[in-house]
Amino acid sequence: MSQEKVEIVRAAFDAWNRGDFDAWISAWDDQVEWHPSIEPALEGGKATYRGLDGARKAWDDYRGGAWERLTMRIQEIRDLGESVLVLGQADLTARTTGLEFTEEVGSLMTFRGGKVITSQDFLSHAEALEAAGLRE
């Protein structure tokens, strides 16, 4: 299953980048819980998206919210058994200002039955590695 999980994650990131909701959501378990690191311009607090309805809301929040562009570039994927660690960069363009920037990001994704059940995002590789119990 290890290579299969890596391919599921890679396909999900590719689907996100090309705007293919159906392919993106196919990676998520019905009970998924996603804790993003880059806020979609919410009023107060951090977002947590739960279930496939939450995944749809996340898609709408990110793809139609504050970001004109939010694409993910994977630099490394590590299979950790039950989880997959993704280290990469997010390329963002703010909708209202047009400002462009790149942010270091990481994701720790836990699987159940071949689908992502939890995804925790981080604003640095160091934070993601620490959450996974690893060092750089």
Give the radius of gyration. 14 Å
Sheet/helix structural class = alpha+beta
Helix content: 25-40%
Shape: globular
Q: Kindly state the mean pLDDT as a whole number?
A: 89
Strand content: 35-45%
Largest sheet, described in full? 6 strands, mixed
N-to-C span? 25 Å
- What is the count of helical runs? 4
**Uncertain spans, ≥5 residues at pLDDT below 50?**
none
In N-to-C order, the SSE pattern is HHEEHEEEEH
In spatial order, strands of the major sheet run 2-1-6-5-4-3
3D structure, described in words:
With 136 residues, the chain is of the alpha+beta class. Helices cover 32% and strands 41% of the residues. It is built from 4 helices and 6 strands; from the N terminus they run ααββαββββα. It has helices spanning 2-18, 21-25, 51-64, 125-131; strands at 28-35, 49-50, 67-79, 83-94, 100-112, 115-122. The chain has a 6-stranded mixed β-sheet with strand order 2-1-6-5-4-3, with helices on both faces. The longest helix has 17 residues, at 2-18. It is globular, with a radius of gyration of 14 Å. The model has no long low-confidence stretch (mean pLDDT 89).
